Amino acid sequence: MTQFSTRNISMMMDLYEMTMANGYFANSDTQPRVIFDIFYRKNPDGGGFAIFAGLEQILEYIENMHFTEQDIEYFASLKLFSQEFLNYLKDFRFTGDIYAFPEGTIMYPNEPCVTVVAPLIDAQLVETALLALFNHQSLIATKTSRIVRAAGNRAVSDFGARRAHNMDAAVYGARAAYIAGAAGTATVLAGQKFNIPVGGTMAHSWVMYYKDEYEAFKKYAQVYPDATVLLVDTYDVIRSGIPAAIRVAKEVLEPMGKRLKGIRIDSGDLAYLSKRVRKMLDEAGLEDCKIVVSNSLDEYTITSILNQGGQIDAFGVGERLITAKSDPVFGAVYKISAVEKDGSYEPRIKVSETVEKITNPGFKRVYRIYGEEGYAVADLITSFEEEVNMDEPYRYVDPEKPWKNRFFENCTCKELQQLVIKDGKRTQPPRSLEEIRSYVKEQLASEIWQEEQRFENPHKHYLDMSPDYYDMKMSLLHNLRG
């Protein structure tokens, strides 16, 4: 049983999708097929790339999309739609096709990550839901990846549920974070729903309930002797928290043959405190006791703490992960790129005074180009009908410098989009989160240049075009200008 088979979210749309659909219906424009692309225009936080997440929820939504009697009654109450159109909606199901990058793919601005090929009304009605699913999880996955990379080989856990924008944001944010490399989550529903490792110990209220820290720590250790992690900053980390934790380790756990697993610090100067605490623990013979820290962390604070010599084994990251606080809008858009006419697709292009908002028209393919070392050197857009042969030098166009005569030589390529929905039904079984998580990790380790993974001034990944595709785009712009 999927999330969307038990909770119908087909009404998750902007009203203009319905007004346009009703208008198309009135003009008998229900059958022509169109193409819409989902793409985004800039990487969050000025980064070098983003991570695609949320595909599984998109597929669940598409397969289960329908309108209930209550939905139809609500539409009728708005007095905007014809009865014939409302009757049409009673039996509505999405019947189109969807192409998409595999979930977890490293992606770049202005390339179509998801493409909808469907009857006009079908394609129009899914716009808002697809964007909401794509934007949220891709944003959180991208932010988490930055935080995980800043932490190096230290574990990062999602602690953000209580700061998330709502319960769905917490649960699906935890899913996206895990895909991007988080070790686990504190959100129990996400653990249950997606089999994500869950973790957590105590809050300050546990410590404050008892008469002193020693009693609080002792009672916790007696209940959880194999997983004792103590929160030591309720009163004074150095003068009371750590001494009490060491005492419990010696007087309670060691007589049971157990070891103190860790301590957590949730406030104060984390770099300074962690160095002091590490020394105290080591002197007490607790070299194996881990130091976990939390408190408004992100990639920048983590980098600063570690650069100062912070002695930290794991990070719990909350609000700045689950809300992507530093750049909380992903900004993907859904734009029409072609309309079926006489058995073929006629390209459409949006023109703007803002150059970045001019769209890439037509039915397209996207290829990732790899150099001899195995790293991705560029992505390439072609028309859907074109064949790409890398067995010989392949001429391409850099749209920012089209006058240059450039070739991919000694390269290989991989087509990125796959057919994931055919006639309204998925074409592939769900992939596990572990598979998606491993896919992200493999790309960052062996395909994506370290220069693109910098937080500051990352190397720009090029989005090139085949000569035929570039000429088609320029011809459209020329004709519109004329």
Q: Can you describe this structure?
A:
The model has no long low-confidence stretch (mean pLDDT 96). 38% of the residues lie in helices and 19% in strands. Strands 13-12-1-5-3-19-20 form a seven-stranded antiparallel β-sheet. A six-stranded parallel β-sheet has the order 7-6-11-10-9-8. The protein has two domains: 3-125 and 332-481, nicotinate phosphoribosyltransferase (Alpha-Beta Barrel); 141-322, Aldolase class I (TIM Barrel, Alpha-Beta Barrel), CATH 3.20.20.70. It has helices at 3-6, 15-26, 55-64, 69-77, 83-90, 120-125, 127-151, 167-179, 188-194, 204-209, 213-223, 237-253, 270-283, 299-307, 319-322, 433-446, 467-481; strands at 33-39, 50-51, 97-100, 106-107, 114-119, 155-158, 184-185, 229-231, 262-265, 290-293, 314-317, 333-341, 344-347, 364-370, 376-383, 394-396, 406-408, 412-415, 418-422, 425-426, 462-465. The longest helix is centred in the N-terminal third of the chain and has 25 residues, at 127-151. Helix 13 (270-283) links the parallel strand 9 (262-265) and strand 10 (290-293). It is α/β, with parallel strands linked by helices and 482 residues long. It contains 17 helices and 21 strands. The radius of gyration is 26 Å and the shape is globular.
